[in-house]
Amino acid sequence: MRWQHVTILVLLLALLAVPGTAGDKYLYGNPELSATIAGTNEFAPGADTSLTVIISNSGLNTHKIVGSTIVNRDDLPNTAKLATVALKSEATPFTVKTDPQFVSDIAGGAATTATFNVKVADSAEPGIYTLPLEVTYTYLREAEEYGPDTLRYNYQKKTETLPLTVRVTPDLRVEVLDVRSESLNVGTEGYVYMTLKNIGHDTANKAIVKVVRNGASPLIPTDGSAYIGTFEPGETVDVKFKVSVSDNAEPQSYPLDVVVTYEDYEERAATSKIVTIGLPVGGKIDFDVVSSPATLYPGGKSILEVVYKNTGAAKVYNAQARISAVDPFTSNDDTAYLGDLAPGETATARFEVSIDADGTLKEYGIDSEIRYRDDLDNSKISDTMKVRVALEKKPGALFTNPIFLTIVAVIIIGAGYYIFVHRKKS
């Protein structure tokens, strides 16, 4: 035998003596799932929030077999495969807005998360509630071997319900039982009266009621807070606020927000949910000159009479009319008292004006305005009005003209002299 053949034979015997690669399998094990809420589990009535759930798998594989003839498994029996989670809310004041979610596989010792949009009812009673989390998954129940290289997997589908504990906290909820306004007109300031009720379940301590401007609403609070102290569930309170209305508003209803800041049952600063009310606004306070154009004459002083009418929607008090005299007019008496004027009422003002003798004969417009006080004793000034004045030539002015009188005198003297001479000759 050749030595090279001996070497080959030894190598073949060595290969035959090496054992095959060992495989393993697990005899027992299954998923063990639990669920918890990430973050707080306390929610106030009316809350619209995202609830994140952590699903954990603590399942173990307790028995393992290793052997050279065992074929390795692709899946482990403690893996929750193809898992889907669904949050339920039956018989609770919660509404789940999110559909069931697919979260894929959850291996033993691992966890995954799912987030659900949840709405708490405004009328939710304080207390503890349970939200069922349904988890549906498939796991490897067993794997059968057929020969040295074949496996058949037997999977089992399972649905588990995992409880999630949530708590609804007490809260203050405000209902506006009655609202009325006083002297609320365009461009003025008025009062707003409200009756509020605590329809929640929390006692509000150190409570302050506030009215707040709603967006670009023309209603602007000028005295917008009222301290009411302790506000018990079921209790009602009456409050009063001062609100102004911008000049560019129209006579219609506008929104105003109502909110209460307070200390809650845990002595923490809290704010109630905003309640929006509508307030009617009356028309603007306005005036018109209703008298006909006055006729005045150049030279000397004249009395200018002007009739004003309250064409607005509210009564005014201590009204005073004023004119702004311009050339050819001057006045040392440019203010006249009108008194109180209800809507539709008129009053006459008299002004003494001087007129230049060389004033152009035409119609003029003299600026005029009225200063008054509203129902809340605020001083206001009306829009500017035009008082129409026509300058005309004074009747009979020819007979008082010095030149005309001189000419007449000369004619009379000449006529008399002519008559005297004619008679003398006769």
From TrEMBL:
Pfam entry (one): CARDB
Q: Which Gene3D superfamilies match?
A: Immunoglobulins (2.60.40.10)
Q: Residue ranges of the CARDB domain?
A: 169-263
Q: Which residues form a coiled coil?
A: none
Q: Which UniProt keywords apply?
A: Membrane, Transmembrane, Transmembrane helix
- TM ranges are 403-421
InterPro entries with a match to the protein in the record: CARDB, Ig-like_fold
Q: What is this protein called?
A: S-layer protein
Organism, scientific name: Methanoculleus bourgensis (strain ATCC 43281 / DSM 3045 / OCM 15 / MS2) (Methanogenium bourgense)
